[in-house]
Amino acid sequence: MTALFLVDDYTLRTVALGAVALGIVSGALGTFAVLRGQALLGDAISHAALPGVVLAYVLLGTKASLGLMIGAALTGFAATLVVSAVVRTTRVKDDAALGIALSVFFGIGLVLLTWVQRRPDASQAGLDRFLFGQAATVLRDDVETIAIVGALALVVVALLWKQLKLLAFDPEFGASLGLRMRATELALTALLVVAIVIGLQMVGAVLMSAMIVAPAAAARQWTNRLGVMTIVAAGVGALAGATGAVASSQVERLPTGPSIVLVATALVAVSFLFAPRGLALRAWRARRARSQLGTHVVLADLAALEQAHGGPGRAHPAATIAVMVEADATAALVALERDGLVLRDPEGNWALTDRGRSEVLRR
Amino acid sequence: MTQGQLEIQAIAVLAAVACALVGTFLVLRRQSLLSDAIGHSVLVGIAVAFLVTGTTTSPLLLVGAALTGVVTVALVQVVTGTRLVKEDAAIGLVFPALFSLGVIIVSRYADGVHLDTDAVLLGELAFAPFDRLEAWGWDFGPASLLVMGFVLVLDAAVIAILWKELKLSTFDPALALALGFAPVVLQYVLMTIVSVTAVGAFNAVGSILVVALMIAPPAAAYLLTDGLGRLVVLACAIGAASALAGYWLAFALDASIAGCIAACCGAAFALAWTLAPGRGLVAAARRRARQRLEFAQTMLAIHLANHEGRPEAAVESRVAHLGEHLRWDGDFASRVVRGAERRGLVVRNAEALALTERGRALAEEAVTG
Predict the structure, then answer these.
(1) A13-29 burial string, b = 16+ CB within 10 Å, else e?
(2) Closest residue of chain A to B258, computed from CA coordinates
(3) What is the CATH number of the domain that holds B348?
(4) How far apart are CA A78 and CA A102, in angstroms?
(5) Are A131 and B121 inside 8 Å of each other by CB?
(6) pTM score above 0.90
(7) pLDDT, tens digit (0-9, with 9 covering 90-100), for B71-89
(8) Mutate to test the interface with A, among B28, B32, B111 (most CBs of A within 10 A)
(9) Cβ-nearest to B273 among A37, A86, A220
(10) ipTM of this model?
(11) Domain span including residue B323
């Protein structure tokens, strides 16, 4: 029933499609940002988009999303140039450069916005949806713009795949091959800007950076291959977009942007815990390594005991072994018995089997 | 100036100085973006405190927000500690999630109350004088002014008491650890006052401006001076000046005060960036030009020394010939020659140049090293 209702709801379908398209693009491009340690560049870009949105509105006199996106992209890109110029020419580090760019550009945007809002005509109303995002105001035209611009960005990623891969992992090697790494870097930044501006009116400036970081951070835990990671990140972005958009339409007063971001964060948490690189598997491996280490020690001690006292086949009480390993050895002995490396005699003493003896020699 | 204008400027200056004080340490410790993270995630603390107390004026809101700031930093360190992502990605994961929670709480439970996300992000300094603290029939002034004054005193006290410890752990964390200065404790103390400052200031000026005030003035000061003490003082002065300039800019443009102050912080940084003595862009460009000229003068001396006393010397030592031989255009060549004359490397006899003793020595030294 609900599913039918979902497909029929025109507004929801529009919003959900837009969110999915946005999630795919931001997830795929976020992969490169996260791998290159530029996760927060997205934050600077999305804040720096504000003055561009207002300027585009003033200069073009339109609120059509493509025009505003172009304005947003220009100032967002300008902010990244400022950041890299500051880092290159001063001793200010990149964190401070990012902070300055994002807050100052945003401040200028705020000045422009309040200035425009005081003009007599009221047509500027709704510009501030770029601040916080208002998915409900997204129209079919907007979704088409998002999908077309996003698809173009993905095509460029596919065309530049080799260069982008080298940029992410070994730019010096790329440069030595004669590839233009600086130009590739600018192209990647431009693509990141595109991914961000198409999402602004849906999730807003503050939360857009999460759409860059979260899907890529989740995808990183599942694979060590760039291609797989990009596809998984796009999938996580799409899933977060769809789930968040649907949840926000089903629950009253649940804003879309935050809802998408929380779903994305939940997917990150799941990946951190249960993915192949995740914490659960890591803890299990650590435990197994510890217990293996324990059995190795017990086996070696048994071999030493039988050499010192009574020769091969002589059994020793568990207490003696416990004194040697300075811990209770029963669990390790039982595990070794299961593997056929030691034997327990009727008195409860332990001895090496032939296999156990050769295992000690092998190690 | 009306009393309201004075009060707004006083709040702005107090906020700027308090932010610059703690911001200096953030910039030096390369943790600038924690101010951004804290500035956003305090929303959830304020929202939860509002749910508990039911008002937007309770001091508990400040406590709640400050706690959230510390929680934010702790979460970032937990996520970074898993080594699954780098620290910047950890920041980028934590604060949007907390901010989202805050937005959802506000829009579900605090709709219609004066607690909207715009106010948190953007602040509205212009209304600050209307929210006054009145008790026992006395008007103690705008609440924001008192809060900021308190925050500033707290920041100054903590930094003064822990000056030596903060200094060492900022510049040499390994030595600080070895000497038993507990860098982790210091980090949390610093982050607590950053949170309290962010909360106190965002109430008046919004969280984005908090980022501008915490980072841009210290970064500008960092380009102008060395020495932690001078840095802190200069950062506070730049912050205060930006606050005042921003206020009057906003007054002239009839635009957002917070936005104008942020723009002025940016302008202050841009000024330091271009004009800083020794380190600025202009100084660097002039240094490069001077080095180029000095290098060219050395080249000239070597050229003259090479041909000195030989038959071709009459041709090679002519100023007009330099363009051909050293590929200098006429203007540059005459600047090089004038400079070399002034330094006493060559003497000019009509069109012909001759090395002086000093010029010969320079050429000798440049060639043989």
Answers:
(1) bbbbbbbbbbbbbbbbb
(2) A107
(3) 1.10.10.10
(4) 11
(5) yes
(6) no
(7) 998 999 899 988 888 888 9
(8) B32
(9) A86
(10) 0.86
(11) 282-368
